[in-house]
Specification:
By secondary structure, the protein is α+β, with helices and mostly antiparallel strands. About 30% of the residues lie in helices and about 30% in strands.
Length: about 725
Amino acid sequence: MSKKINFLFGIHSHQPVGNFDIVFEESFNRCYLPFIEILERHPKIRISIHHSGPLLEWIESKAPWYFDKIKNMVKRNQIEILSGGFYEPLLSVLPEEDAIGQINMMTEFIKKKFNYNAKGIWLAERVWDPLLPKIISKAGMKYTILDDTHFFYAGLQQKDMFGYYVTEKHGYTMSVFPIDKFLRYSIPFKLPHETLDHFKRIMSEHNVTGVTYGDDGEKFGVWPGTHKWVYEENWLKNFFKLIEDNLDWIEMTTFSEYIEKFPSMGRIYLPMASYEEMMEWSLPTMAGFKFEEMMKDLENRGIRDKYKPFIRGGLWDNFLTKYNESNLMHKKMLYVSKKVKGQGARGKGQGKLNSQELKELYRGQCNCAYWHGLFGGLYLNYLRHAVYEHLIEAENIIDKKAHGNRKWIEYKVFDYDKDNLNEVLISNKKINAYFDPDYGGTMFEFDYRPKRFNLSNTLTRREEAYHHKVKDAEAGQHGGGANPKSIHDIVKVKEEGLGDAIVFDWYLRRSFVDHFLGSETDIRNFMRCSYPELGNFVDKPYIVENISQDKKGIVNLSMRKTGNIKEGELLIPVSILKSFSFSKEKAEIISNYEIVNMGDKDIDIWFGIEFNLTLLAGDNELRHYISCDSKGKYCDKEIGKKTLNSIGEISDTKLFGMKDEWNRFQVMLSFGEPASLWYFPIETVSQSEDGFEKTYQGSAILAHWKINLKSMGTKNIKLSLGVEEF
């Protein structure tokens, strides 16, 4: 065969910020290390490789000799190293300065550790935005690799999915390589010779000079079944050997070499896109159902492939509307980013690549917790916790520089979550408390800053497009096969009864949520969100009547809503004024509720205030509930050390909370008069790389009172929410 095909082979390896150390270790030993060791023994196989920053930092700490292996192969021109955002952010949703800074941090790391000048980047989740050429070019990078899907959406055909193209924005240019979908789905799942058969076919049909493969390194040992297939059954060794035996017509070329050797296929402008599955996952749930039905219909009619280039799901940014929690993390990141830059503007050293607050900000930009698809992502509470942990630490560093050791408190009123409505943010040295007047006057973030812990890091239970698959999986409707399945094709359940555990909330899981309960309410229907709600306060707007700071430094916030309570066919007007006080020195919110019956008849009400809090681990005995009696004395023996996934009821208590013996702090609710309490876990059923699973997302605590309220009468309820260390 006289003509050669250039095989551009790219591997991306990543573990997210906040993942467990054992996951890093197992992935390293079962995947990353054996891949490199086999590559070492095949020096004629040349690849482009990318490791994300969190993985590089772990390797540097635990196995620095691995760097020597990479460096030696770089020196012998076997490996080209790809840069990228250091902590694997989605560049398109970052402020431009942060996006460039993340790339520069990675490029400098590569230069320092491997003596290599990176020329191209791996783009996290292949999330493309037409503005990226400007950002990537400003960071000094020349190319990236994207799914062929992006190019189909630009109107190209299969014959055009080879080589590379040039794109630009505002005159800033870069090159983009389309990833061959057949290779992405066949390596390493199909037999090695099928890749070579594909090479011969596309050379014959399309006169190809270069074809790109680029995908996750975890396919080579981390994904279910792949370690046995790739290493024990020698897929990778056989694959490399087969290529070596055919180097007379296959040339292993790096991306930067290919750009120097061959001209581009032309200029192109790509639309906002990611890989196909990501865009489907980003759709609202009902749209996801319809999209899936449409694709099946087109397939049944035999025209799916014909029209697929013109059919796409949503944009990654849709996750910010699909999941309120994702949006709040993203807006927290933007808020902290502004604080970091604001400090820099005052000349206090921020903005440098090695500044600790900048590193903490960048760590909080790791993309994995911000979205949900096949993998847990947003549904994994420890990944969300890691995002908040690092963003809170960045805040702590900045505020320490601004205030020193002085006691301080501040409040801000502005459109924090970017919905054109104002939120209220109150902070001191120990806590952040963020309130949303337009959504029930609820608190959506409560941080205990000394422990860098967002106690409100919970998740609302939502319907997902894949939930209908749970019963199919429970019924055993899944296939087998000798070869490992692609992770996209694995459907199984990890525990029994998941179908019954699927519950959907009709309101967001926040704190200081105001309920008027119907008489048929009990803990079971309340926890399943199927109880009778008689009021219209839970998710409706409150009006801020006061936000101010007095001469003693106390910040006071009060919000009021006049609404209605259903009593049979009648609507009884009721007003709630809820007030909150914050001091400079305490990790405490003191609250007073004033409930007024504005109707002309006496009413009996069942009023409840709901809190949704988390200490992350639902079944760990080191994190449990604590309670006391009506006299305020602790009596843990009454309920025992009930873990946070317990379900229970308590009557006449004045003190109740959650204790974290690992981190040595507790969050406590204190009531001016005894309250009855319900507590139960908020658990979601979600999809992961290993099947469907139930995940603890936080604990709901409802304090409630049955009250007879006279016409024009008032009921006051005093309580506090605070954190203390022990």
